[in-house]
Design goal:
D-Maltodextrin-Binding Protein, domain 2, single chain, six-stranded mixed beta sheet, 14 helices, 332 residues, alpha/beta
Amino acid sequence: MTKMKMNRRMLLGTGIAASAMTLATPGLLRASSFPDRNMKVYIPTREGGGADRNFRAFSSVWKTKLGVDFEPGFYPGASGRVGYEIYMGKAEPDAYNLIFGNMGPEVLNWAVQAPSFDVEDYFYFGRVDTDPGCAFVGAESSLQSIEDIIAEGKKRTLTVGTSRMAHPASIGILALGEATGASFNLIPLSGGKNTVAGAVTGEVDFSVLTSGSVIAAGDSVKTVLVFGENKVGEALDNAQNINDAFDLDLPEMLSSRAFGIHKAAADNHPDRFEKLVETFNATFEDPALMESYVAANGTPEYLNNGGVEECAQFVKDMLELGNRYKPLLTGA
């Protein structure tokens, strides 16, 4: 057997060859090294809410596929606008910075009032759930059914707590008032926890919110109407779908949490974006996700994977919904 001895000249030659390979295949090397630091996620709501719960449940499994941790930053304010403005204005579009938002209410924001940035400059690529809105009362409320609410709403204007004005559930209750003649005044209470508390303490007559957060509130509340299909039965007190109960033809008023990214990041770093999508989908295939989701008080029936196309269609539907009901939201 011939043994080869490496001398300084050969080592230099090997180094030059390696350097040449690095220059020739930068995309390949970047793909294999991404990510080499933690991901930063901008969440445009308060810590401890439904988006936070879903984020922590999902990222606790996703990080095992991606090989790094996720660092959340919470930016509540102006119905989610603050978080998006900071993300679009300050976060580097390098695929290390993501936004985790509730597509339903946050896209409705853009229909009611355009943001300072171009909404085409970011997109959602990873949907985690689809969660219908609902109307609910505090367990001790004198209003124990949607019929009670409508009857009382014809006598006086009822105050309705909502996590933010431009919310699918807000549209649902205003559309019901328009159809029945009941009078409702929306009161934005800044976040799901405050919206639940508003109904429980009697600060408002009743509230509307994403149903997953209402289910998590347990026996302190009672659901009286769902703005979409009730997939969970008793967990939402067997409340009816608004269309079935009142012979209406409204679209489902859904919240849907999803991860988004700068368009420039996906365009300039397609290898990185591909790895994010690949590992996101792998997370949904891992049984550990459902365990984590349920442990975080998530509703199993709402866990629902969706990619770029599904998210884009949802955004389109929300923008159309916002334009259709903009007069109700701006005049509430």
